[in-house]
Amino acid sequence: MTQMFPGRFAGAVVLVTGGASGIGRATAARAAAEGAAVAVLDRNAEGAAAFVRDLAAQGHRAVAVAADITREDEVAAAVADAVAQLGPVSVLVNNVGGTWTETFEAADPARWRAEIDLNLTGPWLVTRATLPHLLATRGAIVNVATVNALTSIAEPAYSAAKAGLLQLTRQLASEYAPRGIRTNAVVPGSIRTPIWDWRLKQRPDLLDKLSVWYPVGRVGTPEEVAAAILFLASAEAGFINGASLVVDGGLTIGLGRMTRDIIGDDAPSA
User: Fold this and answer.
1) pLDDT (tens digit, 9 = 90+) per residue, 180-204?
2) Region 84-96: what's the mean pLDDT?
3) Which of 162, 176, 209, 214 is catalytic?
4) Under DSSP, is residue 41 helix (H, G, I), strand (E, B) or coil?
5) Alpha helix stretches (DSSP H) within 5-70
6) What count of other Cβ atoms lies within 10 Å of the Cβ of residue 247?
7) How far apart, in whole angstroms, are the C-alpha atoms of residue 118 and residue 209?
8) DSSP symbol at 7
9) Model's pTM, two decimal places?
10) Is residue 118 within 8 Å of 96, Cβ to Cβ?
């Protein structure tokens, strides 16, 4: 369980895309617990509204705004609604992501465009709509990428889009830090979120099998990624800009499983 920091975001307005579930929900819940007013932006209007009711019942200030982030008009309306209810956004978390295409051959043009729109163009649209408020508050942006952006795993459209999101992070960090906005990214490994549900219906033991590739021996939790996101968004990270913080339990540091298979788990020590 990660440590909370009550009051760390007192007076802040935090907008989280995909905030009704998974990493987004954990981030919004923690931001609220640490004093922020939270705007939960999600395509699932009912899910966002139900979550906001839960937050309000706990004494937190929160609003739900519905939008498909690939639609410029919906994004503009949702951001305007959030600002009207809570005030200017000071932290933007571009969390929305998803994939449906596992191989290059399966990626027909329509699916390719849909995944690029959701995972790259969507965050650009939300950032563009939120930027005037972030400039006014001298705020922070945190983009949620994936280890697929760093190495070849699968899901080519999703991976390419998230690699683009890391480059967009660097571009925003370079261009807007002189104007008071820091931009960083988190790069999660396998995290137990609803994005896995359709696979787990077919292979219930999938995440258990994946855990052998992680040096820490397990996949991650949304709360662990949320902790990293809010660290980067906080004043504690005031000198961190343009960084990509890998939150993957050591998955990408090397070929640990291959090494163990070569030398054996019972290899003698020096």
Assistant:
1) 999 999 999 999 888 777 788 888 8
2) 98
3) 162
4) strand
5) 22-33, 45-57
6) 20
7) 28
8) T
9) 0.94
10) yes
Q: Quote the CA–CA distance of 130 and 202 in Å, as a whole number.
A: 39
Q: Which residues contact 154 (CB under 8 A, 6 or more apart)?
A: 102, 103, 148
Cα–Cα distance, 80 to 58 (Å, whole number): 25
- pLDDT at residue number 152: 87
Please name each of the domains of the chain with its CATH number: 13-262 (3.40.50.720)
Tokens found for residue 47: 């899910």
Using alpha carbons, select from 238, 225, 37 the residue that is nearest to residue 145. 225
CA distance 185 to 208: 27
Is 158 one of the catalytic residues?
yes
Determine the length of the chain. Answer: 270
Residue of 94, 115, 131 whose CA lies nearest to 17: 94
Q: Do residues 30 and 52 touch, judged by C-beta distance below 8 A?
A: no
